[in-house]
Automatic annotation (TrEMBL):
Species of origin: Desulfatibacillum alkenivorans DSM 16219
UniProt main location, coarse: cytoplasm
Any GO CC annotation of this UniProt entry: cytoplasm
UniProt protein name: Histidine--tRNA ligase
Quaternary structure, from the entry: Homodimer.
KW RNA-binding (keyword) present: no
Amino acid sequence: MIKLIRGFRDILPGQVELWQDIESKARVLLENFGFREIRLPIMESTELFARGIGADTDIVEKEMYTFPDSKGRGQTLRPEATASVVRSYIEHGYAGSDPVQKFYTIGPMFRHERPQKGRYRQFYQINAEMFGVASPLADVQIMYLLHLFFTGLDVPDVVTHVNSLGCPECRPKFREALISFVSDKMDRLCSDCQRRAEANPLRVIDCKVPGCKEAVQGAPSIQDHLCPDCKEHFQAVIEGLDDLNVPYEIDPRLVRGLDYYTRTTFEVQTTLLGAQNAVAGGGRYDGLVKVLGGKETPAIGFAVGFDRLAALLGAEEKDFTVPPALFIAALGEDARKIAFGWLCDFNARGLRAEMDYEGKSLKSQMKQANRFNAGRVLILGENELQNGMAVLRNMNTKEQEEVALDGLTDRVAALINQG
Ligand code: AMP
């Protein structure tokens, strides 16, 4: 038997209804906030992610699905959406025509990570990105939107962690302070951190390896190194969240795994998913549009982890099966032909109807109708055909009535619609 690739999964009927529900609520909310959908390819040139996400991040170093095209150029299944949205923003000239743009996109991402609960190699995200607004109002609005989204879905036990990562002005000084802090703790760090301590020391304070977590206790805090502008920005964000009653925790250790973040970063965390505790994350990335070849443009966005959100809302436990309104039981070849015509007619009218396609006995068709939990059964046997009447049985009240074959679908549809 050919099986799923490790780290990939099927989202089956019964689970998918929850995904649809989440997705439609996300769309309504995002569109109310002025975000418009953008659909992007799942494959981009490797350079986009290498430049956008940062060459010495985990994602670019070891998690990308990269394939050469026929000319040997690298192309990569997208590990995240922001770099693609930025590419599209630049490529379609938005910066020149109307730099303030809000986009959202929903779809699969690919990362070659070690699969475990809540961590897949193909996973789904809901992404929102807002371009052209430097004001902290954008940060507040984005985090408020996310808060409304989670509370609207009644997601249990989520807390928004927020931090500032500073800017090109103040971050280098913080980096230096960190490098000097970790320099005499190298032997306590994991091999990844030892390697990246110089190039990317922020990743060391973000490392989940217990030894590293312990070694960085007492590390300098970015909050103590923010320049006056970044401090003011962060203060305004916090005040804005307070004004809108968005609950949050200031978390000076929150750095996140992608290089492009500046100033505000945030993560929605839960204690209910074990080690994979982030359900959404995002932040400001004021430098990225320029890094990817566009004009200097402030921007901010977030990504919700769809798989984790669905797990939190119990996709596995709920049964979303909707029973058909009608099951048609037909006996004999002639009756089955007529029944099939009715079936198509009911379906075209938007009524969920089912029938037996195989010519089973009436008894087994009635069993099938019960298994489907159909609201009504329409019976058409040889006698009924001769009399020009079919029998309609209400499976709840057990009442039966005869319905003339002539004009039957109109009559039955009307009865079903009456309830
Ligand atoms: P990131 O782009 O890493 O900030 O991820 C944003 C969100 O996507 C995270 O908060 C997770 O909820 C989700 N996510 C990231 N990686 C995975 C993965 N491998 N499997 C499932 N969800 C993921």
